[in-house]
Amino acid sequence: MSEMIETEVSASVANITELPWPTYNKYFEVTSTDKKLDSMITEFVVLGNHTFSIVEEEKFKYLMNMGFPKRKCLTRKTLMGRISNISQELKIELKEQLMSTELKYVCATADCWSVYKNVHTQTSETRNTGSRVENSDDDEDGEDDNDDEIDMIEIDEILANGLEQNPEYSLPPHHRCASHTLNLVATRDSEKSLSDVIYKKQMRSSFAKMQGLWNKQSRTSVVADTIHDALNVYINVPNTTRWNSTYNAVKCLSDQLQKSEAKIQRICDESGIPRFDKNDLAFMIDYCKIMEPLSRALDILQGDKYMAMGYLIPTISWLKMKLTELSLAGKCKNLAKACLDGINLRFTSMTKEIPIILSSVSHPKFKFKGMSLFERDEGMEFFKAEVEQLQSITGIDNDNVQPASEDYFLFDGDVEVEQHNTEIDRYLTTPFSGDLLILNTTPIIKNIFLKYNTALPSSASVERLFSVAGDICTKKRGKISDQNFENLLETCVV
Predict the structure, then answer these.
(1) What is the pLDDT at residue 113?
(2) Where is this region: Disordered (predicted)?
(3) Which one, of 487, 443, 445, 449, lies nearest residue 469 by Cα?
């Protein structure tokens, strides 16, 4: 199972569907030398997050004239036109793909929140203007026009009466963010380990010393320079917006203590912080051993390049196995038990949902890995029923296809089945080569994969979008228009 965590799938869903998903560099591939230079400049400004007016600066023009003396430099107006054209091309291509008859499933997300039993949905106009909606009462006319931009819908009665009486309202299944849920295990559920008085005393003592050193580096430039001069690096400091930051900070300090204990102790003396003793170091080492699997699982689940719903069950199963082993011994065994209880509490019902089970079973990388014997039998029943249903709808019959060659073998953890010439048998007996194109040989299972292996719900992807938007809308771009902001954001995130 650890091999599953350390490797990544080498092909994406886009490769399976064979749809021409756009890539950013595609829009800069031109044949003309002059147009190619303009494309390179546009890419330089967009990806480098430079100001648009840089193309009209004298030093930039001088640099261009040195390399291309007969070439007129790109103007700001032309640059903005190119960015706008790229944005429009992206929208047109996306619309064409959504209108394609070959596209059967689309994964979508909604930005909504609840207050006083009301669901607030943000319209496109609200999203375009960003935080200006909150400041609308500062307009010259003094009127608050928030009611025109935010729709408030009472959902209690709708859900109570059922969808049969209100077919026009339909909500998709609710899936919590797996990354955020796992972060709650590492932060809130782990606090239950403080019921052990000895562990609680040691944890608070060690973290008080570490927090003192982190605060000194963050708040005092003299201490920060002292740390850098002694260790040639700054130590990592926890950040509440980065879920693995506490683990990374403890791991960094633990490694430095093992590597350069005398230097760390001297820094503590000069900073007026109590020294770290052997018990502190032993606690930090055990703490990192327990939190490392959580950190690695969190990194996997908050990935967005090849991440799919099918990763959830194998990742959580691997994590539970590691925490079970770590809960047997060590200074922080109570921490491992508390985290394990939190995972069972928060993820058990989620991993028993049929769509999530089918997403894992239909993923050729995992199939039935991470499932108990009972869960495998149950999953096989769900899998067979889904295959039969799609087979009756599509009319595809693959029972007469030749069986796999003799050198094919079962994966570890796969279900042993009788060898017949069926699509399920070929799927289970075909080893995963690291390329999802293998699903092209099993068209029905490929459709199941596309149906259930949506992107794993994660707020990490949304936070990345916010980070890109924050990098675009900087102080130097304080006067950027809403349209230019949207165009630049769309070209950056492709």
Answers:
(1) 46
(2) 124-149
(3) 487
